[in-house]
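Thread: Newbie trying to understand structure tokens

Hi all, I'm a second-year student working on a class project, and my supervisor (Dr. K.) asked me to get a predicted structure for one chain before our next meeting. I've only ever worked with sequences, so writing a 3D structure as a token string is new to me. If someone could post the tokens and maybe explain what I'm looking at, I'd be very grateful. Here's the chain:
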Amino acid sequence: MEINQIIQFTTDLLAENNKWEEQYQRYIQNIANNSAQIEVRSFRKPEGLSLYSSIGRKGKSYDLRFRGQSIATVLETATKEVLLCPKSETNQKYFNFDFRKKINWDSIEASNFRSFFKKESLKFTTEFNVTDRKYPKSEEHRVENCLLKEFSKRSSKEKALCYIQPIRLYKLFFQMPTPLKASTHYPKYTDKGGGIDILARVKSIEGDSRICVMEVKDENKPAESQKMAMGQAITYAIFIAHLLRSKSGQHWWDFFMGRPLRVIGEKKQIRVIKEMPKTLDIDVVTIMPKGTTEEFCNVNIPLKGLDVILHCHSLYYDNEAFQKDETFIFFGTYPNQLRM
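---
Reply by user tm_fold:
Sure, no problem. This is what the structure looks like when written as tokens:
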């Protein structure tokens, strides 16, 4: 589908299937109700691993990942007991490391589990040209995880691209869900839609704070060109635009901007922190290795009736540098759009 067709088709899908409005209102209400409890954890994030949350998770349950690959679930009980639940089949298949039973976080077995992946992580960052690195099943997930870590850096001296931070849920990485599936390049409405690879908060060259929808690819090839990836990203960005203009949009805006969601009143309404701008600018960015495929970037798309403008840009990285030691060197139209 061409970009203009994707825009119209996605807009029509969201208008015809409006159940998502109530669903996402419940999501933001649950986030407001649970944030104070879930953000306080009685264990530390293991070195070399990442903790993820998700909007659909119940209670204090977290996904433990190595280079973007889910390797275990971490559960924190009402009595503050922390349990490590390894994903044995995955770990055996991709890391040749078999550990099956549910164990206490502070046990020797759990310590050994974390140490195994800590050593594997060091091979990526300190030992160049290592042939026995343990790779996750998805290279795209590895790139995505490394980008999240890169964008999360606080010091401008350490960052390859400044004025960008991933939006977090309960202070953890997460994928923002949508009711749309765009991976087939033909948008579909579904109860289990696709997640946005990276949803970030950025500071534009004009000085305003914006939301940025990022679609990540580990390859740049004609069968999945930059333009095709942009079609996916635009599908998800259109949903975010409609979400922000829905009845719970103001609260989603506060969440995306990193403001605390405060529950007030007997009906547990969420207090508005700061009014959302009347006109919204959303950056839409593809991230992939440098290549020569067909492009769609440096284009602004106004969404009629929403008072939203999508700013479409490319962000390429040097794949040779990334494969060597997971270093990012960025190119494309997007770096010039961020505050200098």
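A couple of things are worth pointing out once you decode it. Residues 89 and 98 are 8 Å apart (CA to CA). The first strand starts at residue 50 and ends at 52. Feel free to ask follow-ups in this thread.
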